[in-house]
């Protein structure tokens, strides 16, 4: 397949219209309140899973409480008619035949209408947990039994991707961390969600580059380690993602693809990880963002964002809008060589 290098129709790298904006988790969120930074462009890019900040006092599990007033009846005194005359000296009444008659039937006073009491729905407790793994990876789990087969957005340090809960409302995934103090926000479209956090001691030992986008755009990260050609050993990409075990031993990097592509309006991400502090070789890793021209993206403008966490741990972001050639170029790749900075690796 042909590769169109340095594609001349790249419209913008720094601030495109409607581009994704990084979302940073700054505090524990949702049930305990959280703040995320975003822009109008990000809302257009990623919107659909907005996270609403709960009002003060709302329960973390989304259940609201209500109270009904109880009317207290007070100051009731039992009374009876008291005789105020001395009846002992009164003359006896004359005998008189009184015919018994049926007393009138009195209708009981109408009482308040009784309404059926509906028991409140049981609370749906959501529990998220983050556990550190090797190679600065995280095992993120969620239990949300009241929300099976639901679309959910996972936010972490600017990276956003879509997952779907299981039939029992669970998520269990492995994902790359992007910060030592790692916070993960799991947000449902109805405003409910959960937060997990953990400390990633190994984060400083790995360089990471994220490419994220929405829908069927054809975007990919390609890493050619130490001069490797396309298709050769050392060319790390979607169809040859590498092994996490090789990164642990310092032999090579690997790619992790995040997100459920089958979810509606799916947010997807690819993350390239390289073991900077344990590399057994010195040299360069050539990084490029590429997009295959397909029947789903030909003739369209597509958008993406890159996040780079390299060296000192500070994140660098770039946005892009790319005009894809018409459909007669289907099968070709657009290659953007300068969007992501190449890695300079020293042997350790």
Structural category: mainly beta
Approximate strand percentage: 25-35%
The average pLDDT is: 76
Q: How large, in whole angstroms, is the Cα Rg?
A: 34 Å
| Termini Cα gap | 37 Å
Your description of this structure?
The radius of gyration is 34 Å and the shape is globular. It is built from two helices and 19 strands. Strands 1, 11, 12, 15, 18 and 19 form a six-stranded mixed β-sheet that branches. It has a six-stranded antiparallel β-sheet with strand order 2-17-16-10-14-13. Strands 6-5-8-9 form a four-stranded antiparallel β-sheet, with no helix packed on it. With 348 residues, the chain is mainly beta.
Provide a quick synopsis of the model.
The protein has 2 helices and 19 strands. It is mainly β and 348 residues long.
Write the layout of secondary structure elements.
Layout: E1 3-5, E2 10-12, H1 40-46, E3 127-132, E4 137-143, E5 151-156, E6 159-164, E7 170-176, E8 181-188, E9 193-199, E10 207-214, E11 219-225, E12 235-236, H2 244-248, E13 254-258, E14 267-274, E15 283-292, E16 301-309, E17 315-323, E18 333-336, E19 343-345
Parallel strand pairs: 1-18
Antiparallel strand pairs: 2-17, 3-4, 4-7, 5-6, 5-8, 8-9, 10-14, 10-16, 11-12, 11-15, 13-14, 15-18, 15-19, 16-17
